[in-house]
Design a protein that fits this description.
seven-stranded mixed beta sheet, alpha/beta, two-stranded antiparallel sheet, 10 helices
Length: 377
């Protein structure tokens, strides 16, 4: 028999298990987030809502500048000159029809960076931010926005990389908040968010000026606000909403935990061999009993010891108490194993053993019953 061995190692401290639990929790949250997709904010940006997240003030502002504002469901109507999409209400399969309206001379302002029509954002603010985001105009290639200086776009917003065929504004070197470009006879305008148009932020900074410049450049403009309550889910997951800095932090934490686990998991010290209990095969038991009887010169006492040992083993295996009588043990053993009850009873409480030959025979019978009952063969 090859002796078992173990390696000495320092136990993982309580703090290590706590760190492991935190990592497992973060993994579970990440798995949950990966199964979710961006949910359209139908309750926000409602044009008839006076709540802080509504946009009734925007409608009133545009009408005060002579615009004709309608709230429509689905895509922009043919007679609209400007359409504002505050949250994603255009499904991917409806995109071609909307593009044909733009190419015919319409201006579409997409204020949801996760819309299927918008390009992937270049950078994002933290989704856990609580303070408002103030953006300086910085680099600006859109003449209609030259008079603006600063925007308050709320805590969560995105920036776009400006393609060569488009123009950007409010670009401080990390992407532009406003990107615009021609499409046929019309224009496409992408905004990194829509919070600047809400009731709570419309009067902040130059947010109202941005709204008028994009949506009501002249009196009589027909503006269609696409009803946010008809939103459709974006095909981008919540992972897409997380800023690049978040993933860098998660990567650093994963590397740090891996190094910590490797360091704490080192196996130090020599191999320590542990003594193992001696396993006596059944064929050797008879020889051992004979040697015991030869030394004791009392075969009846040795037989009693062997019978008590078998009684205890059978009672434990069958779920009986140690105080169960030999008759009960024999009855239950016979019922569960099919071994003859009288045979078991004779071994457990048979006649006294008078000599060594009877003792050896009893030991052999005990060994056979033990194999049949305890080892199944």
């Amino acid at each position: 028999m090859i002796p078992a061995a173990r390696l000495s190692a320092r136990p993982l401290p309580t703090g290590g298990w706590r760190s492991l639990g935190v990592v497992v929790l973060l993994g579970a949250l990440a798995a949950l987030a990966s199964s979710l997709t961006s949910v359209p904010r139908a309750a926000a940006y409602e044009p008839d809502s006076t709540d802080p997240s509504g946009t009734k003030a925007l409608v009133m502002l545009l009408e005060s500048f002579g615009a004709e504002v309608d709230v429509v469901a689905g895509g922009p109507p043919p007679d609209a000159q400007v359409a504002l999409m505050l949250s994603n209400v255009i499904a991917r399969e409806d995109g071609p029809a909307v593009m044909r309206w733009v190419e015919g001379g319409g201006r579409l302002i997409v204020a949801d960076p996760y819309s299927t029509l918008a390009p992937p954002p270049e950078t994002r603010s933290s989704p856990f931010a609580t303070t408002s985001g103030r953006l300086r105009k910085g680099r600006c290639e859109i003449p209609a926005l030259d008079q603006l200086a600063e925007l308050d776009v709320g805590p969560s917003y995105s920036r776009f990389e400006v393609p060569a065929t488009m123009q950007g504004c409010f670009d401080e070197g990390r992407g532009a908040f406003v990107v615009a470009g021609p499409r046929g006879e019309g224009w496409l305008v992408f905004l990194g968010g829509a919070d600047q148009f809400t009731n709570s932020l419309l009067a902040a900074a130059d947010n109202a000026g941005l709204a008028v410049a994009l949506l009501a450049p002249q009196e009589g403009t027909r503006v269609a606000i696409l009803d946010p309550s008809g939103g459709v889910p974006s095909d981008r997951s919540l992972f897409d909403a997380l800023p690049r800095g978040f993933w860098l932090a998660v990567t650093q934490l994963a590397v740090a935990f891996g190094v910590y686990g490797w360091f704490r998991g080192r196996r130090l010290g020599p191999v320590i061999v542990e003594p193992q209990p001696v396993q006596i095969e059944g064929s050797e038991l008879v020889s051992a009993v004979g040697n015991l009887a030869q030394l004791s010169r009392r075969p009846d006492r040795t037989a009693a010891v062997l019978r008590r040992a078998l009684h205890r083993e059978l009672a434990e295996r069958l779920g009986l108490g140690r105080d169960a009588t030999p008759a009960v043990v024999a009855e239950v053993t016979a019922a569960r194993t099919g071994i003859d009850r009288d045979r078991i009873a004779a071994v457990l409480a048979g006649p006294a053993v008078a000599d060594d030959a009877q003792l050896v025979a009893l030991a052999g019978e005990i060994d056979r019953i033990r194999k049949e009952v305890l080892h199944g063969h």
